[in-house]
Design goal:
Largest sheet: 6 strands, antiparallel
Distance between the termini: 54 Å
Shape: elongated
Radius of gyration: 28 Å
């Protein structure tokens, strides 16, 4: 009988975090890449994010070349005395009606030519109209945004009958340790899937909580592929991140795909790629994608849906345990003619700056 089944070990917690991280990285790629970060102290982990005022919107409804009222989708970027640009025309904003999302403008500002404006046209803030000797403008302040995620409990029980503990098991020196290792892998896969697929949820009684995962987190830069994956789609996704400032502070970008889309990436412009090889192997494997906006390593992860691809900055993602609730094994002792133990951990995903990530969905 294994020493792990000794009654002297009952109720003594044993950390298995390092064992979890040493599991097969091909089965838990996100855990392998992110590891486990510093613990959180509350079951609802809160962090705050700063964000600059946006600097563009779109026009709602066509506008003639003489009209001075322009309805926009979002008035946040604009205030009176702003100079904005639509096409080649500059316009001076003289008033903003936040209720109706209407800008009152002077057309053809600075001797530019007023032109008809199409529905959906981009309207972009350029600069304020500076005037010599004017009073200070009214300040405006954009408060930091509160973001949060719940911790989620992951647990499995190891149960070995007295007979199983006593008999010899072919190729298995310690049946309890063998079952414990299997349960650790099951828990690692559960956490991996929660990090990707989880939906933020708390039951009314507050006892059941679920973390929000990557798919529910990425909402802004989402591209509907509606067909076979192309390199242009990935470039478009990375451009969206670039335009939102995602590349401004560097980052450690990864493209995460399942097996089907990994093969599609490896076939990009296959006929135009020349490989000089020193062996007799055949085939092409692409493990990095270089876009016009930066490079990203490609990570294979079969826990994703077959029809999606993520571009993420791993510097802005972290898997965090609840303080004192890292993955721990505890031997519960003999409960009858069987022995039991339990592995439990409580974790959350901290995801920062949602616009620094992207997702392509509905791929063939």
């Amino acid at each position: 009988m294994s020493k792990i089944l000794s009654g002297a070990l009952v109720g003594k917690p044993e950390s298995v975090v390092e064992e979890i991280l040493l599991l097969n990285p091909h089965q838990t790629p996100m855990l392998n890449v992110l590891g486990f970060s510093n613990p959180v102290t509350q079951v609802e982990h809160v962090h705050f994010e700063d964000e600059m005022y946006s600097d563009e919107s779109t026009v709602v409804g066509a506008v003639t070349n003489v009209a001075t009222a322009v309805v926009v989708a979002d008035v946040e970027p604009f205030r009176a005395s702003n100079v904005v640009k639509i096409g080649d025309e500059l316009l001076l904003v003289t008033a903003v009606n936040e209720g109706t999302k209407t800008l009152t403008v002077t057309r053809g500002y600075a001797s530019t030519t007023a032109a008809a404006i199409a529905d959906g046209a981009k309207i972009e803030f350029q600069f304020v109209e500076g005037q010599e000797g004017r009073d200070a403008r009214d300040a405006r302040y954009k408060a930091r945004v509160r973001k949060s995620n719940f911790t989620q409990i992951f647990d499995e029980t190891i149960s070995i009958t007295g007979t199983a503990a006593a008999v010899n098991n072919y190729g298995i020196d310690d049946i309890y340790e063998y079952e414990k290792a299997k349960k650790q892998l099951e828990l690692a896969l559960q956490l991996e899937k929660a990090v990707i697929n989880g939906v933020k949820y708390e039951a009314p009684n507050g006892l059941t909580r679920q973390m929000g995962g990557l798919r529910s987190f990425v909402q802004t830069n989402v591209i509907n592929g509606a067909g076979a994956l192309t390199d242009s789609m990935i470039n478009d996704a990375m451009q969206k991140i670039y335009e939102k400032g995602g590349f401004a502070s560097g980052g450690n970008f990864k493209i995460i795909v399942g097996a089907k889309q990994k093969r599609a990436i490896s076939n990009f412009e296959k006929s135009n790629i020349r490989l000089d090889r020193q062996d007799n192997g055949r085939g092409q494997v692409v493990d990095h994608f270089v876009s016009d906006f930066g490079a990203a390593e490609i990570l294979l992860n079969n826990n994703l849906a077959a029809d999606e691809l993520f571009v993420v900055d791993t510097n802005r993602l972290a898997i965090k345990p609840l303080q004192g609730r890292e993955f721990t094994h505890e031997y519960l002792g003999k409960k009858g003619d069987y022995f039991e133990g339990m592995i439990v951990g409580e974790y959350t995903l901290e995801a920062k700056q949602e616009k620094a990530h992207a997702r392509i969905k509905s791929l063939a």
